[in-house]
């Protein structure tokens, strides 16, 4: 019996050799396309040797994405293999624990070395039923770092997967039946054009053990894009929270999402109330808490997003309200490690961490709150340089007098106004000593503040009334623009990643019609006052500043537009809009800047 | 060679879109609304409290697998558009491991639900090994409300009888199945749809089972054409999924003409839910004043012997008890903690039960045993 089977096999093999099967041209074409696809997607696929996972290069400088759970808890120095067969050193750049994402950078043999990299697609265009290809290093199979490529169907889009032990929440993710196994984590998912659409990182496992069950999940590349600015800035990023607790109400056939409780936050200050129904969030319709969490999880903490609400008023009318709300951090602080939980055994010296290789040491700096402070400094200095190149105000340390006309609190009558910021001076030749002073003259009313005086009254910090602290804001602005980082001793200036910037709209324009642009953010801290500086990511031009005197209060925002180039080549903004909370405090038009070094 | 041919078939039918053929995302969009996510009994010991059903009529008839999920009273479905509706069990067919359900209630009725036409599906040719297939199910309860169910792709690996087991129990279905090369049978997948490349219904995705011989997981679906010969008191009867759909009741052996239907011997013991085929006969409740209460049987007693015959399961207990009529003396031995306690019960005529409307599960005709 077995002999005859063998004979049959040999005969059929011979037959195959003698007359090859004529394949339809469609099939041959498909086959060639797939070979080409694998050729295209293999070179940027990374075998993250330290951590035992995968990754994918996304830029020629060597930036690569992987999972937090592959690299996030080990040494910042990494060893990564590429399909060229070589092992490269790498370093952690940015970490996103909740989103299970990490940005790493591979180090080339010389500075001008160019890595192969994958181009990113648009994961919102991915449809259930599309084919997809996963690449990676399952079971650490490839000793030469050639990736394993698996093929399958997109089984679902916009999926929500609950966090595991308070981390690794997969929101708005892509589900696929391509085989995903241990070691695939952090590797790329491509569409059939070879564009990167996701980072594979999780699967549903049950009775069959932790191997492929036909249900794998990839973090959507569009979510990765939203966090990229923060990751590149070396941050440990946080995911957003609304500042309100919501729940699905299941009392009818179609469910609704209602606000249960509002905690002090921007959401509260913008007027979100218990019993409000959330109908849209960041541009997507909402009917279940899953949908809400799905979108919320893709947004970094601190972003401003539009929220649509349906409210039944006291008179029983149904009203739609659209708000722009700055999201809080949705992450709970990690509980401190109790001594008995600590893995360090008492009495035993902690093993010294392995020294970093020199090549990594040069681009790594440890700091609380950062994954790699070195990259934050690099991003910050680059942004500051571009900012200073636009405004050219550095070293204008003397008195500033800015004059113009403007309207206050949306009144129609325009009046003259003057802002002046003068520096401290010691007593000389009969002139008395003078402290630092900021003065504002608006519509004939004068306000002034000695910003460096100790024990300033809370009211003085917020002058002029209704501005949220314009005097303080002006002083801090000049600190950075005239003195640079030297003006911010202590915590100083850091890079805050990228976030959407919403230019002030006019009151007639509904929020749903307004558009944001992505802006680079610098963060400052001086005298307990937190500043955010929005920069155009291309030019470095200053779009707006925002100062927080008390995190439980609305900020003082100054938005800038229509820059005019003066004789010294400075691009100084002509139009200023000062906003506090929901109200425009002033619209100003600058006619004259008087600066002195 | 077989592998090669399979691969070719896959290439031709699986990924290439032939002229006039719809893309898989188009197929998905038109197929997923024909499935419902089911929520019912379970949630313990590896038994999922969720599953999938296939809509087979515009007014909401649904086919699913006859598993533990539909044992409980509160069965709920989420439709493709997010609507949540109550579900009634119309009939269960253990022989085919299938069940017929109905969506809605007196207040909530449907007439235009997207559905699979089973009359067409049952007349279609059986799928053959190598054919590309799609599976639609709510595996792992990934989807709720209006979130679409999961789609997977694979090929028919074989068609034949299945020797499988769930835990240590044999699967209840002994007919032919499609074995699929994709991991289609996950928690919650049972009752989903196996379709061809164009979304035409081929069968119901089965349970999570292991092969009896190799102990490996098998992914199978019960063909919509499934039929099975059942040996009853009057001989062999052939029953099929379509019989279940058309008659809206399960196969029941015809009572023998010479023997009048017997009156049930009622003891007043309510046993635990018969979740699996070998659920041991634990007493959950005793009806006060009933024969069982009179002799001191209590909740949590395990019935071990009925007149000296061991009763390992609720099913064997039911079979044995069917031999007794009211007034007969029955000796029962129950295990209570570490003791074996014996007693003699005299069952009575079952008390009057309110008339059951159509659509009540047929198992409820056995009094004293809670479904």
Summarize the structure.
With 597 residues, chain A is of the alpha+beta class.
Low-confidence stretches of chain A: 1-16
What pattern of helices and strands is seen along the backbone of chain B? HHEEEEEEHEEEEEEEEEEEEHEEHEEHEE
N→C terminal distance of chain A: 101 Å
Give the helix level of chain A as a range of percent.
10-25%
The fraction of residues in strands of chain B falls at 25-35%
Can you count the beta strands of chain B?
Answer: 24
Architecture of the largest domain in chain A, CATH level 2? Clam
CATH fold-type name of the largest domain in chain A = outer membrane lipoprotein receptor (LolB), chain A
Report the sheet-strand fraction of chain A. Answer: 35-45%
Tell me the major beta sheet of chain B: 6 strands, antiparallel, barrel
Query: Count of helices of chain B?
Result: 6
Structural class from helices and strands of chain B? mainly beta
CATH architecture of the largest domain in chain B: Beta Barrel
Tell me the radius of gyration of chain B. 23 Å
Low-confidence stretches of chain B: 1-14, 354-371
Oligomer: heterodimer
CATH class descriptor name of the largest domain in chain A: Mainly Beta
Q: How would you portray this structure in words?
A:
The complex is a heterodimer of chains A (597) and B (371). Chain A is built from 10 helices and 31 strands. In chain A, a hairpin with a 2-residue loop joins strand 16 and strand 17 (284-285). Chain A has an 11-stranded antiparallel sheet with strand order 24-23-22-21-31-30-29-28-27-26-25. A 6-stranded antiparallel barrel of chain A has the order 1-2-3-6-5-4. A 6-stranded antiparallel barrel of chain A has the order 7-8-9-12-11-10. With 597 residues, chain A is of the alpha+beta class. Chain A is 17% helix and 36% strand. Chain A folds into 3 domains: 39-237, Beta Barrel (Thrombin, subunit H), CATH 2.40.10.120; 240-329, Pdz3 Domain (Roll), CATH 2.30.42; 373-425 and 432-594, outer membrane lipoprotein receptor (LolB), chain A (Clam), CATH 2.50.20. Residues 1-14 and 354-371 of chain B have low confidence and may be disordered. The longest helix of chain B has 14 residues, at 2-15. Chain B is 13% helix and 33% strand. In chain B, strand 5 and strand 6 (98-103) form a beta hairpin. Chain B has 2 domains: 2-223, Beta Barrel (Thrombin, subunit H), CATH 2.40.10.120; 269-365, PDZ domain (Pdz3 Domain). Chain B has 371 residues and is mainly beta. The chains are: A alpha+beta (597), B mainly beta (371). The interface between A and B is large, with 40 and 42 residues.
